[in-house]
Amino acid sequence: MTSLLPLLQIYKWSLPSSVIMAGVLALIGAQWTAREKSAQIFVLGQGASLGIVLGLVINILLETDFHGISLLIGLSLGWVTLLLTDLFIRSKSDRNHIYLTLFVFFLALTYLISYMTPALESHIAASYFGDLAVMSDAGAIGCLLGASLFGAFLLSSWRDLSLRSFQLANHSAIHRNWKNHLFDLGTLLLTTMAIQSMGYLYTMGSLFIATSFAASRSHNLKSYLVKMLVIALVGSGLGFVVSLQSTNLPTVPCVLLGQMLIGLLLYTKK
Amino acid sequence: MKSLLQVDKVRVLSPEGNFLSPEISFDLGEGEVLLLKGENGSGKSSFLKTLLGLHKPFKGTYNFHVPLQEVQYLPQLGNLHFHLPLTLQDVLGTPSPNEGLLKNLDLNKKWNTASGGERQKILLTSALAKKPRLLILDEPFNHVDQESGHILEEALNFFLNEHPQSSLILVSHRPLSSVWKNLRSLEIR
């Protein structure tokens, strides 16, 4: 324990940032899953990843270190991905093959760019698998701020958003809703920020692990929300701290396994 | 009588441009009940979705003379298994004064385990609580036993009597059992 405290001091921003971000991503993932659009977010993540990699290429070419470029291109490509998926899936009975085609397209482009830019190799690995321990303080503080603000909005609008998801799944959403527009915008922003600072694997895992374990055994919306937050927050914190105990343990897999462990415990608890 | 909705030669199209419904025209006034009848596949549901902007390709014109916020729509009730563990109370929202439909309902029951009749009662109560000027119901008596269907019909009739400025468009294969004021039918074929 005495050796853990100095470590926690070092990770004073990345630890709370990744834990809070995991909780907020879990809330986002739950609503998109309820809308039967989880695959769309999967593709959105890949599109944003491609944008982030393109931003890195531009930084290398211009010999600059401006992370805002990556975030901006990541957001733009993520937005284009959402538009493309919405355009292509309209009136289609099976959407998954379109999502997978787009996913493979973005993945192929990402690989092509990284192959042509050898200096990107280490950045690509970080962009996909992430390492929370090497996150910059600026990135961690930005994510913590963004996740806290959007988390507050999600919690205060949880029932409204859930009913909107219900209407969308039931094909009966006929009224415009500003909260839903804000939710879409926040999803795009938070997902891109999380991928840029914490990696694709962490982001996708945090979006869907908690809701997968919490949905079936919850009695109502409130107990479901509490379970999801416990899985995401406690699981992430536990995984992060365990990974700090050994230099051989990478942070992201530990965080995701921590979420799965807590999810499993809650799932088996009657 | 003030017109709430004017439909002029609307014909629903598929994304490929094929016709999914015949040409439909009508003018719906305040307090009127319009019963849309027709065989399965005649395009009744697609027509309603077109009016509400849920289905895009169509020919013809239509105009709502009330804001869309004052329109409530209940689609055909499929066997929707919803991912989130909503209870009937969650779907209902704020308690409604229309207690009749909620009689003997366990509001803590999960949506996914509720029967068709229980689901329709909750959805209809929630829609009526918003006091819509125009209510659009697509097969509200499907998956509902005869007694529950009669209760739903009575609740609708009561609402329209209490709110004479509101109107109803109803798609139903089941013959109506109540006596309705200002009822007219439109056969779609």
Q: Taking all residues together, what is the mean pLDDT of chain A?
A: 90
Instruction: Characterize the quaternary organization of these chains.
Output: heterodimer
Chains forming the largest contact: A-B, 25 and 26 residues
Any idea what the shape of chain A is? Answer: globular
**Lateral strand order in the biggest sheet of chain B:** 5-6-7-3-8
Your description of this structure?
The complex is a heterodimer of chains A (270) and B (189). Chain A is 80% helix and 0% strand. Chain A has 12 helices and no strands. The longest helix of chain A is centred in the N-terminal third of the chain and has 25 residues, at 38-62. Helices cover 23% and strands 25% of the residues of chain B. Chain B contains 4 helices and 8 strands. Chain B has helices at residues 44-51, 88-92, 116-129, 146-162; strands at 3-12, 24-29, 33-37, 58-64, 71-74, 134-138, 167-171, 183-187. In chain B, strand 6, helix 4 and strand 7 form a beta-alpha-beta unit. Chain B starts with a strand and ends with a strand. The model of chain B has no long low-confidence stretch (mean pLDDT 90). The A-B interface holds A 30, 33-34, 36, 90-91, 159, 162-163, 165-166, 169-172, 174-175, 211, 215, 218-221, 223-224 and B 14-15, 49, 52-54, 56, 68-69, 71, 73-75, 80, 82-87, 89-91, 93, 108, 110.
